[in-house]
Design a protein that fits this description.
With about 250 residues, the chain is of the alpha+beta class. Helices cover about 25% and strands about 30% of the residues. Strands 1, 2, 3, 4, 5, 6, 7, 8, 9 and 10 form a 10-stranded mixed beta sheet that branches.
Length: about 250
């Protein structure tokens, strides 16, 4: 009797430092390629894996979500164990579940949370060099938090994103949470929204840091956001400090 195909959901954590990003790319090593290669080896047939979204080169994930439909007699627990045995140490599948056929990692998602880490120490912590942006200058957290209130809510985020010529339905997104916290020298910007534009979190981070350093005022940021046009006033924070933290369904 033929084993039926099932839809599986994977939760994946990875250090994106040496990868070209999530998505398959010619002549480059991606997270998607690593998982597809490992999964195809396990089930004995080619498998296409779909992620909740594309993380760029150097961006990390605490809980990326992906799905794939394939035929196997392995249980979800066995699949998780086998995948991790066939993946490099900087990629780990933390959970595998069977899900209904209608589940899609990208299109079923209702929101995401990203976190960006900034090392504010006078001397960069060498153990954070892959996971935080070093900004040793004094940051005005109160000004940054006032700026965060301006950005929170539903807006056209064209001014706080990059445009790689991707087709999108609308540049409007709703930020439901934007917080700035500090633990010793590590500052964390947490952003939750119903969706994100290309490099939106890194652009928001760059703008907030600029406000914190006194190089951009809250009023200027409000005007930039309302202008719906990307300008050189907005800097894009480096990829290494960004983590896809959670996806909601």
């Amino acid at each position: 009797m033929r084993t039926p195909s099932n839809n599986y959901r994977f939760t994946v954590a990875y250090d994106g430092t040496v990868y070209s990003g999530w998505q398959l790319q010619p002549n480059a090593d991606s997270i998607q390629q690593q998982i597809e290669t490992a999964l195809s080896k396990i089930v004995g047939a080619p498998v296409r894996v779909h992620g909740s979204g594309r993380t760029d080169a150097g961006v990390h994930a605490r809980a990326q979500v992906a799905h794939a439909t394939f035929t196997t007699r392995h249980s979800p627990i066995t699949l998780r164990r086998a995948l991790n045995a066939n993946l490099p140490d900087d990629i780990r599948v933390t959970d595998v579940k069977r899900v209904p056929s209608g589940f899609h990692a990208r299109f079923s998602a209702t929101g995401k949370e990203y976190r960006y880490q900034i090392d504010t120490g006078a001397v960069a912590d060498p153990f954070l060099r892959r996971y935080a942006w070093h900004r040793p200058w004094l940051l005005d957290l109160q000004a940054m938090r006032r700026a965060a209130k301006v950005i929170t809510g539903r807006h056209d985020f064209t001014a706080l994103s990059a445009n790689p010529m991707r087709k999108i339905d609308t540049p409007e997104r709703t930020i439901t949470k934007l917080t700035i916290t500090r633990h010793r020298q590590l500052l964390t910007i947490t952003v939750s929204a119903n969706g994100f534009l290309y490099k939106m979190v890194r652009s928001i981070t760059g703008a907030l840091v600029k406000v914190g350093e006194g190089r951009l005022t809250v009023a200027q940021l409000r005007k930039l956001l309302a202008g719906k046009h990307r300008t050189a006033l907005v800097e894009t924070a480096p990829a290494r400090g960004l983590f896809l933290w959670r996806v909601w369904y």
